[in-house]
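Title: [Solved] Coatomer subunit alpha 3D structure

Original question kept below for reference.
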Amino acid sequence: MLTKFETKSNRVKGLSFHSQRPWILASLHSGVIQLWDYRMGTLIDRFDEHDGPVRGVHFHKSQPLFVSGGDDYKIKVWNYKLHRCLFTLLGHLDYIRTVQFHHEYPWIVSASDDQTIRIWNWQSRTCISVLTGHNHYVMCASFHPKEDLVVSASLDQTVRVWDIGALRKKTVSPADDILRLSQMNTDFFGGVDAVVKYVLEGHDRGVNWASFHPTLPLIVSGADDRQVKIWRMNDTKAWEVDTLRGHMNNVSCVLFHPRQDIIVSNSEDKSIRVWDATKRTGLQTFRREHDRFWILASHPEMNLLAAGHDSGMIVFKLERERPAFSVSGDSLFYVKERFLRVYEYSTQKDTQLIPIRRPGSNNMNQGPHTLSYSPTENAVLICSDTDGGSYELYIVPKDSYGRGDTVQDAKRGAGGSAVFVARNRFAVLEKSTNQVLVKNLKNEIVKKSLLPMATDAIFYAGTGNLLCRAEDRVVIFDLQQRIILGDLQTSFIRYVVWSPDMESVALLSKHSIVIADKKLMHRCTLHETIRVKSGAWDDNGVFIYTTLTHIKYCLPNGDCGIVKTLDVPVYITKIYGNTIFCLDRDGKNRPIIIDSTEYVFKLCLFRKRYDQVMSMIRNSELCGQAMISYLQQKGFPEVALHFVKDERTRFNLALESGNIEIALESAKKIDEKDHWYRLGVEALRQGNAGIVEYAYQKTKNFERLSFLYLITGNVEKLSKMMKIAEVKNEVMGQFHDALYLGDVCERVKILENAGHLPLAYITATVHGLSDTADRLAEELGDNVPSLPKGKKASLLLPPTPILGGGDWPLLMVTKGIFEGGLDVAGRGGGQEEYEEAADADWGESLDVGEVENLQHGDISMVLGDEEGQEANDDEEGGWDLEDLDLPPDTDTPKTTTNARSSLFVTPTPGMPVSQIWVQKSSLAAEHAAAGNFDTAMRLLSRQLGIRNFSPLKQLFIDLHVGSHTHLIAFSSAPVISVAIERGWSESASPNVRGPPALIFDFAQLEEKIKAAYKATTGGKFSDALRLFLSILHTIPLIVVESRREVDEVKELIVIVKEYVLGLQMELKRKELKDNPLRQQELAAYFTHCNLQLPHLRLALQNAMSICYKAGNLSLAAHFTRRLLETNPTNESQARTARQVLQAAEKNMRDVTQLNYDFRNPFTVCGATYVPIYRGQKDVTCPYCGTHFVPSHQGQLCTVCDLAVVGADASGLLCSASQIR
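Solution (posted by the thread starter after getting help):
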């Protein structure tokens, strides 16, 4: 049995598969109907309108409906899209056992304990026929898949077959007048809609189930006499064919498998049995320990079965459907039915080679599961699970191609796995001795090698090498040198797929894929919610894989995406260009055409093949928000620009990529204040003063414009800005401009006009304008302000601008391939305009003669002669920055030309040290120190299952800050950041970079744990818990040198985890003052944490005291004995323990019963603080290892507060020695 899905719930009494979707309905004894997605393992919906158990449920074949019947005598028809009951059919007088839709007509058949079978029309919502005849409960009734028959089973020990042909003729519209007249006569004189065709008697007790064969005239039934009977029928009679015996209790359900010649039955003896319908013998038995089975259901299209039992239900397959295959060059060798076949990809020719031995009829799920091929010897190894694992070696004759009738005797042997490792050698895994036997083609042992670890499967890993799989890791083992070539921690892998050049390998697990190189150096890990089925490498080095529902791709950097959606699962065998060759579950070869443009484009970006990227941009239809988002995320906004037509998006991307030209073009078309402001900010960052000025002009931001002129030393335009402010009557702006210019006379004038005569007088006096000061003093009269004496005054004047320049000077560098003329060329403007602007100083002359236009808010009429026309005429050259009225004797063009000819070409910058750290390291701490927090978090998530990074945020920042120092440069230059390397020395080569210096080390943690121990001893549990959690949060960011230190770090995690859990329980106990029973339990659990001996003694003394005070003397005595066994050094402690023991032994009883059994080993759940005894299911935190009850799966660990409970993780990586 291959279990695909399992639920835990109340007893399941009814099951039904959906014919198209991966859904199953389960009706429960509690009255709830559950709708599950068995592929995703999720509960989709629940329906709970029935009162009492629901025993029957069934999906409609084509409508979004299902029907249910329960112990409330009601039949309900539901619409699962509307999530509600449509109507209720009433008529039965007792419990309803089963309900079923007809496959063609709008009918429902129901069986009830009122000894009747009813047929309903669910469209008219009426009962159209009542079938009476049984004289006890009718346990089931169902329609024949094709004919007008109904079969029913009853506790009156009979199976009845009913003919409902007359009902069909009555309810279906007659085709002609004669038939209509016949129907009227039947209705008038009375007629029987359904008659008993056969009564099958043979069971000695009540019959619980009967069902039709899907195609043959057979019926199978199961009864309380523990027997399964097969019946055959013809047009006139029905008779018993055979009886299947083996069940030890009532047979509750039995059916024919829809696609195989077998019968499946289940029983209250807690077993499911599989029978050969032809030979009528038992094939397999599956048992549960505590659950009785009640119901079976089969999928109408797939090889799936479901069984309901006392505590839930399971969805399962009887045997594996994946065909065994092996690819060699242009050929695919695979097993179909009982033949070895070869498929040639180039010609798509399929040829039968030789017949192979079939497993015995009693062996379900023991067909071939792996195939290995040796092209030089034309030999095939086929492995199966027969007899606990065996292999068969076939030598395929050269002349057998195309014939397939050559029967040869295969060489066989026992072994869990077998693969070719050389031209004429193959390796066989012998699990019992954990060694590999190397054999020749005569099946003779040539060599034996002990494996380096407990191995349960071997895979090919190149000539002379094996990839050995253990439960949580894989290694590459060299058979000649008997050494390990590579080691990798993984979840349990199922399949191994090597790239054609053997440089990369994909390790496929149930829900994940690990990509590594040929030495098992980890590259990336993918996690899937749906099961991974197969995969293959394409010619570009991209891994293409399938899940149950999709074909997907994985790039070498770990990026993945969907290529195509699948209707049915397929198994990829090879990829040629845009064609994927697959095998389906029927063993048929299917070529699937895909569009590889998306992943090839991303691959070219990753490998920096920008010429191909440009070609694909020009020629393909790549577009969409997903592609734009991907390019932004990967740092290629300039590439994303080529896919975007929306001007707002283009503007944002242009700003992100620093492309001022395109941003300006988009801003002109959008023409919104916010966009002009953002353009000005970016242009200012790049030092492009011309565009900053233009943006401020467009937004009429006069304050910023004045300040721009101040910092760039443009005194002339600043003067004109002051006149503009005067015309617009903006006194503050005018005064600021006068301050910027250092124009004292203008400031005095402004203050005087504004009515601030004392301030004007002071300003004139301080700056030595005696005439103006005297005039103002006359006007002020007696109100002349006095100036302080003895103070040394300093003039408030701005510095004189030395360089009145425009845009910042730029180095002549080669433009990137994406910044060329691909997109800008056709948009006007162009780079030449801004090169001209850069040479032309400020570009335009200010004419104050037309200031009257400012009364209407038009600044462009003042700030340039040409700019007023630019807004109306974009085709005249943008800003017209090149039309300058320069003096005739200027030689600026000549100077510019000479300067350009001798411009300095910048050298190519080296790689930043932080980037080198990231590339060379797989340690999360070093990525954090480099400032690459994103990859550090991904590493921790993959290695330790960490999802909550809030506690690590400050540690990340501290690591990054602590691994860098900063040097002050020139006053106008930015501060220089310098990386600090660990182990640096002056003798080291300047081109060799060491790892980052880290501020956290193991010695610090040792000091911190001593402080935590001291706080624990002193009873300061909150402080101790804070210290222990700090240690637990710091450990993922520790780097040590040796393997021995790695073991010490792992040991420290275990120690700290025990203390955190224990202290959390103790603090919880102190909160529960009103619950003495729970207090005793938590105190008892605390004594089972792995504590230091002094702390254990204190915990035992605490538990002893609490239990003694509560009257649980037997438990108190137990804790006392444990305390005395530790030989307490404190005499007072020992004396108290002996006194308690003496008092307790006089009356060894417990007043209350605790959830605590010290005789049964247990661990404590970190969330609920209840014991998980040995043998019970649990889940663990992948980081700290705390145990939890299964219901806590997928939630955040309450002990470490970092990792997700039950998450897949490769393990702690804190040393470079673990990677070597």
